[in-house]
Structure formats: C-alpha cells, structure tokens
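Reminder: ligand-aware prediction takes two inputs, not one.
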Amino acid sequence: MQIQEPGKTPELAPIGSFEQSLVDQGLVDIQEVDPTIYVDLKYSTTDNFFGEDVYQELTRAYLPLDVAEELKTANELLKFDYPDYRLLVFDAVRPHRIQTILWEALDSIPPLNRKAFVADPALGSLHNYGCAVDLSIYDVRADTLLDMGTKYDYFGHLAYPRKEEEMLLSGQLNEKQIANRRILRKMMGKAGFTPINSEWWHFNTTSLAVAKEKYKLIE
Ligand SMILES: C[C@@H](N)C(=O)N[C@H](C)C(=O)O
Ligand SMILES: [Zn+2]
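Here is what comes back for the chain with LVM2DEV6:
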C-alpha cells in the first residue's frame, strides 16, 4: 500500500490541469486542510477491485472546502479519543465519467443489486459532487490499518453495517472488527457524515438532491 503520508507527497506529480480545474471549481486537497489525514487513493493505483489506475492525472483526494473541514473535524475527534489513530482516505471526489467505468466493471451483478456497491451513473453518486468519502482508520504506532473485517470495496454482506449483528452471530465478523467500525461511524457521525447500509467505508455528507443544488458535478 502506497500511502500519502501527512504533510509530504513526494511520489506525486505536480498538480496538473485536471486537478487545477478541481481547484478552480472550489475543491481543495484534503491534506492541505488537514495534513494529518492519510490518503491512499485506490482508484489512482492498480490496487482496486478492477486492477486499473482509472484516475490517471487525479492523484490527490479533493473535496469541497466545507466537506473537507467536516472531515478535519472527524479526524480531530478521532485523534482526541485515540491519539495513535488517523483517518485514511481511499476515495473522495470521483469524476462522473469514472462512475460509469466503475458501474460497468461490475456488470456481472444485476443493476438492482449493483446499486448497493456502486451508484448508478444515470442518477449520479454523491462522490461525483465531492459529498461522499470512502475511508478507514490508520494506526500510526502499529503502522497498520485497523481490522474492519473486510478490505475496501469488498462487495458482499460482510461489508454491510446493517448485517453486522448477523455476521457476528455466524462468526464471520468478530467483536473487535465491529468495534473498529463503530469508532469510524462515531467520529464521522459527530462531524456530520452519514453511513450507508452496504459499505462500512462510505459516508455521505448530504443528500443527492442537496448536492445537486449546492455543488458542481465533477465531469
Ligand atoms: C464503489 C464504492 N467505493 C462506492 O463508493 N460506492 C458508492 C455506493 C458510490 O458509488 O456512490
Ligand atoms: Zn464511496
């Protein structure tokens, strides 16, 4: 895993024209708002569910300033209660054209079920407005991600927050994994984010209707 460590991004290319266009549209690099947030932008690597770097020139995690500030609040709450823990972001704003690529990559799943894992590009994802973030918790002392019971983008019931009790009873998740997810939900919830039922790593900051009114669709 290649993590962009807080405060230094040596392996990243200088900001290119696409990232500059995000800045021009009012988005900010979240590590400029909070240099203690870690980033491992999975779709900018080949370590993702379809094994391709689809982000290409997008190498940093961007959000609208107000959303980035909410994320900073979540990270501050986390650090206050758990000084060794930091938020680690897997995905932030996601261009709409990439949403289509993700949607089509899962075409073995019928559209009605697929929506639990990837938002239908015909409707749009909150990521396309910078109003959703995918993340976990990194333990800086142990130098590892917390065990959440599945990898990022594990598309199945084991990743479903609403199935945690059932997974615990069947022995597929343990108490510690669920406790770790609860820490993430608690900090994100206090900062104003809402979890979804089907992915422990995904949090929204508003509804799609409000996002469409208030923020720009990133193409
Ligand atoms: C693809 C996955 N990381 C994700 O973010 N899914 C949600 C539902 C989305 O596409 O908005
Ligand atoms: Zn997401």
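DSSP finds eight helices and eight strands in the chain. The beta strands are 27-29, 38-39, 62-64, 85-91, 132-139, 144-145, 194-195, 202-204. We will return to this case in the review session.
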